[in-house]
């Protein structure tokens, strides 16, 4: 009850601030200056790339800027469809004034993890603010166009916003633009399979022991090299998995751009539901994703020709998510199933 009251108080305060800010018009004209809001992490930002490409092709003369996190800036760096990236670090009067000076007439709220972002956008003077109902932290009324929160893939949800302002869907494929200088970490010749045993949310993790079993079997049957990947704070998990697979290598601590350059050299990525799955899809790298606690129809690889998803419906309703101490729903997927699927990809004897 206290949390609900605090949320209502915060939202009421933000609405009052918005009323004191810039007034929005009501006209619905073709967009000339568009701001896309994507202040989220790796996967969520990559899901924006088909919509960005579609916006550029639908409105070739429009000015297209994106509000991103520092990580999102890495994702969209070198993206040819955007005119400018505004990096969200913290709210400030100077930052707000900088956005106001851009004179945006249209704002598309793809996804945001910060409560202050939508009120900030509502004070920019844009005539249209488009977003999805039920995803605005109780601030849906700040949107001018509220799209229904249907059960649909996140890529489709973003493309619906493009269509809402008169654009057309030109692609559904994720994209990442690797630069030659970002391929600094060159892997030795041979077939390399990457295992990604971590994830930000532990309830999405397949057991480390299963990744070890998969790595050992593929090493023996394919004679491949194993690379164990993960974030800097997952180093212990990475080393634990790699130490039990003969000759396995732990991925060095790299920037996101350099990691993408390394991943582009991989023959297959085997991963939990986490950002590198979508990065592999954007790079056209074969990927095998393991899902149970989350539904891949909503957040898995979407129409990716080189992606395979192994999925078993979750066993608990409602799902405890971050409060789950042991994701036993993930145990429905056996190491043998993953091994057989991987071997099938390489045409090997099972």
Question: Can you walk through the features of this model?
Answer:
The strands form two sheets. Strands 3-2-1-4-5-6 form a six-stranded parallel sheet. Strands 9-8-7-10-11-12 form a six-stranded parallel sheet, with helices on both faces. It has two domains: 22-164, 3-Layer(aba) Sandwich (Rossmann fold); 183-345, Glycogen Phosphorylase B (Rossmann fold, 3-Layer(aba) Sandwich). By secondary structure, the protein is an alpha/beta fold. The mean pLDDT is 91. The chain is built from 13 helices and twelve strands. The termini are far apart.
User: Which of globular, elongated, flat, extended, rod-shaped describes the shape?
Assistant: globular
Q: Which CATH architecture of the largest domain is right?
A: 3-Layer(aba) Sandwich
What Rg is obtained from the alpha carbons, in whole angstroms?
22 Å
| Helix and strand run | HEHHEHEHEHEEHEHEHEHEHEHEH
Class of the largest domain, according to the CATH hierarchy?
Alpha Beta
Number of helices: 13
The strands making up the biggest β-sheet line up spatially as 3-2-1-4-5-6
For the record, the count of structural domains works out to 2
Short synopsis of the structure:
The protein has 13 helices and twelve strands. By secondary structure, it is α/β, with parallel strands linked by helices. The model has no long low-confidence stretch (mean pLDDT 91).
